[in-house]
Amino acid sequence: MFKLTNRQQRRSLWVLLVGILLLVVLLIPTTSWVKSSTKEKAAQHNSQLSPLIMIPGSSATKHSLLKVEVYNSGKITYTGKIRRGDTEPIIVVAFENNHDGYSNIKKQAKMFNEAFEQLVQTYKFNNFKAFGHSNGGLIWTVWLEKYYDEADGAKIKTLMTLGTPYNFSESSVSNKTQMLSDLIADRERIPSSLTVLSVMGTKTYNSDGLVPEGSVEAGKYIYQKVVKHYTTMTVTGNDAQHSDLPQNQQIVSLIKEYILNQNGNRPGSKNRSNRQNQLSSN
Question: Considering the entire predicted model, what is its pTM?
Answer without folding.
Answer: 0.77
